[in-house]
Each structure stands twice: as structure tokens, then as C-alpha cells.
Amino acid sequence: MPRKPQSPKTLRSDARSAIDACAGWNARAAARRITQFLEMRLEAAHVSFAQFGLMAEIAAASDDSISALAGRMGLDQSTLSRTLRTLENEGLVEIAVAEADQRRKLVWLTEKGARRLEAALTVWRKAHAELERLLSVDLVRRLALETEALAGDH
Question: pLDDT of 23-41, one tens digit each?
Fold first, then answer.
């Protein structure tokens, strides 16, 4: 009895399968959509989503060193320093060398930065409540927590 010809796999179908199944690609797509959603809403507070996150990390920190901040944010110090310079040029943060250790740089919000963050938090709370009506932010938080172990796998 003759066999039925099977449809040959194609690069197109293999690529589609990979895209559909890939945890990394799907996580990036979700992160982009969430970021764009919040970015649009934070425009009202005259702060980008990246600036909001960085300023919130600075305000919440018990260790105000740039190296500790970079570690918490998963960034290298040179990338973080470039971003901080933008905030410093806007008068939102202050950066100084530690007196005890000249190699150690410290960062904190200025009064203007604190006011900007307070305004942004008001906008963020409203935006986040809207986001919570559209998706499970608890699920997103659990994903972030469960993937922390991957940070050590370089």
C-alpha cells in the first residue's frame, strides 16, 4: 500500500514553531507591550518608564552606591552611569564620590527629583491599576521572581 506523502518541514514552519514556543521571545514581547503601555501613561509625569524605574530604585535604596544600584537593576556600571548622567543633567539626581573611598560613587535624588518621582508615582498608580484590569500583574511578578535563578547562568 503506498504511503501518504508527508508535508515536508520548511524553514518557515520551523521558525514559526520556535517563535510560538520560545519563552525568551514571548517574555520579550510581553515586556515590550507592558513597557509601552506604562511609557505612554508616564508621559503625563514628564518621565520615561526607564527614568521612573531608576528613580524609584534610588529612592528605595538603603545602599546609595552606584555599584549596588547596578547590581539591583542587573546593569553594568558603565550603562547605568550613562543613564544617571541624563538624570543628573536634568537636576533630578546628584552623584558624588564617597569621602571614605574615592573609588566609590554615591547617587541620590535631588529635591527636584523627589518631587518628579512623587508626581510620577501618582500617575503610575493609576496606570498600574488600569494594567491590573487587563492582565495578572501577580503572574508577571511571579515570573520575575522565578527567573531570578537564571541571572547566575551566564
Answer: 999 999 999 999 999 999 9
d(CA 24, CA 137): 18
Contact 92, 110 (CB under 8 A): yes
Instruction: Identify the pLDDT of residue 99.
Output: 80
What residue type is assigned to position 87 of the chain?
L
The C-alpha atoms of residue 58 and residue 64 are separated, in whole angstroms, by: 7
Whole-angstrom distance, CA of residue 68 vs CA of residue 112: 23
Task: Write down the architecture of domain 16-148 according to CATH.
Answer: Orthogonal Bundle (1.10)
Q: Could you state, in order of their start, the residue ranges of all structural domains in the chain? A: 16-148
| Residue 108 predicted with pLDDT over 70 | yes
Whether this prediction's pTM lies above 0.90 is answered by: no
